[in-house]
Amino acid sequence: MAEILSPLPGIFYRRPGPDKDPYVKEGDRVDVGQTVGVVEVMKQFTEVRSDAAGTLDRFHIEDAGTVNPGDVIATVSEG
Amino acid sequence: MAFEILEPGLATTVQDRGRFGYYNVGIPQSGAMDELSAEMANALAGNTPAEAVLECTYMGPRFRTDMDAVIAVTGAPVDVKVNGRVRAQWSRLELAAGDEVSFGILQGGTRFYIGVRGGIDVPVVLGSRSTYGLGGIGGFAGRPLRAGDLVPVGGGAGALGGQEPRQEIDDGLRPRFEKEISVRVMPGLYDHRLTEQGMETLLGATWTLTPVADRTGLRYSGPEMEWRPRQQPFGAGSDPSNIVDAGYAVGSIQIPGGKEPIVLHRDAVSGGGYAMVATVISADMDLLARSAPGTRTRFRPVGMEEALAARHERRALLAQLWGTGT
């Protein structure tokens, strides 16, 4: 089980825009370096990427939820 | 002699002690937001207090040095990695040409500083190397760093004049990065615009720093405040928090609409039409710069005497750092 951590404080979004599809859904396959969401802070959007390949098990932060540096955003079952 | 920026971090800028004397024409002082941490980075690197450092916000850069270098990282707690190996913060680090420096996830606070012997050697603009991003002035091309930038490092062997640089900063001297702080303010100039109860709320409530915080200012959430009713004078906007345009002080607190106070910091605009109800004293500006979003903050009123005493105390601390006595 790998954890995807937020590098930043701010607001976490699971989709690139309000009317867009989410980057990934729970149960989807993710690859190393794949974007799973963005964190907004200081008027900038920073992509959050997976360091592991596998299945994205679960998001631990809701869409538009607040995050702090080091918070677990999602967990990935590797393989 | 340069640092090659491989990843820029969120908002990494060149800063020194600031650009003074131009606020009257709209150019703010800029300079390191957490001055004490920045000066400590210089002290460790073997510089004078005047050399420019890199200010990193939340997420640090990844860079490679093309020469042997002496660096030090101070400020918000973060893992410093040289070629992937964790090294000590608040300590002098020797790099060999080709070494790569990167950072872990921030463990508290907001800003950390990278000092390098010889200083970051960007051109001096209006007396300072500090970046004023909104104006595109100073620093590296007037902006935060980007991947691919070659950031020049000065060739000076450190200007300590033969004094042996500090190896590390004692724990007792290091600033703290706390989740709950008390910040001293002087009421005014426009505190008479709030009702008595409004002023009591400002000085009595516990405020939470929102993520809307940068070099320009920091926004806090908490209860609403009431303004005294009045016929808005000619030239003032229609909101009760509006005044006829006036000069802003760095550290001044404005409350647009009576909600969410904003404290102006070192890149603030120089004037505008919001009533400034109190001003954070100069000695406590660093405290704001160190706050992470979510920091619970109280504004404690003080008079001029206490504000000046705090400024004196801060100068004494810096003198102790530089070994120059008081």
TrEMBL record, chain A:
<feature type="domain" description="Lipoyl-binding">
    <location>
        <begin position="1"/>
        <end position="77"/>
    </location>
</feature>
<dbReference type="GO" id="GO:0009317">
    <property type="term" value="C:acetyl-CoA carboxylase complex"/>
</dbReference>
<dbReference type="GO" id="GO:0003989">
    <property type="term" value="F:acetyl-CoA carboxylase activity"/>
</dbReference>
<dbReference type="InterPro" id="IPR050709">
    <property type="entry name" value="Biotin_Carboxyl_Carrier/Decarb"/>
</dbReference>
<keyword id="KW-0443">Lipid metabolism</keyword>
<protein>
    <recommendedName>
        <fullName>Biotin carboxyl carrier protein of acetyl-CoA carboxylase</fullName>
    </recommendedName>
</protein>
<comment type="pathway">
    <text>Lipid metabolism; fatty acid biosynthesis.</text>
</comment>
<keyword id="KW-0092">Biotin</keyword>
<keyword id="KW-0444">Lipid biosynthesis</keyword>
<dbReference type="GO" id="GO:0006633">
    <property type="term" value="P:fatty acid biosynthetic process"/>
</dbReference>
<dbReference type="Pfam" id="PF00364">
    <property type="entry name" value="Biotin_lipoyl"/>
</dbReference>
<dbReference type="InterPro" id="IPR000089">
    <property type="entry name" value="Biotin_lipoyl"/>
</dbReference>
<keyword id="KW-0275">Fatty acid biosynthesis</keyword>
<dbReference type="InterPro" id="IPR001249">
    <property type="entry name" value="AcCoA_biotinCC"/>
</dbReference>
<dbReference type="InterPro" id="IPR011053">
    <property type="entry name" value="Single_hybrid_motif"/>
</dbReference>
<keyword id="KW-0276">Fatty acid metabolism</keyword>
<comment type="function">
    <text>This protein is a component of the acetyl coenzyme A carboxylase complex; first, biotin carboxylase catalyzes the carboxylation of the carrier protein and then the transcarboxylase transfers the carboxyl group to form malonyl-CoA.</text>
</comment>
Automatic annotation (TrEMBL), chain B:
<dbReference type="GO" id="GO:0016787">
    <property type="term" value="F:hydrolase activity"/>
</dbReference>
<feature type="domain" description="Carboxyltransferase">
    <location>
        <begin position="24"/>
        <end position="317"/>
    </location>
</feature>
<dbReference type="InterPro" id="IPR029000">
    <property type="entry name" value="Cyclophilin-like_dom_sf"/>
</dbReference>
<keyword id="KW-0067">ATP-binding</keyword>
<keyword id="KW-0808">Transferase</keyword>
<dbReference type="GO" id="GO:0016740">
    <property type="term" value="F:transferase activity"/>
</dbReference>
<dbReference type="GO" id="GO:0005524">
    <property type="term" value="F:ATP binding"/>
</dbReference>
<dbReference type="InterPro" id="IPR052708">
    <property type="entry name" value="PxpC"/>
</dbReference>
<keyword id="KW-0378">Hydrolase</keyword>
<dbReference type="InterPro" id="IPR003778">
    <property type="entry name" value="CT_A_B"/>
</dbReference>
<dbReference type="Pfam" id="PF02626">
    <property type="entry name" value="CT_A_B"/>
</dbReference>
<keyword id="KW-0547">Nucleotide-binding</keyword>
<protein>
    <submittedName>
        <fullName>Biotin-dependent carboxyltransferase</fullName>
    </submittedName>
</protein>
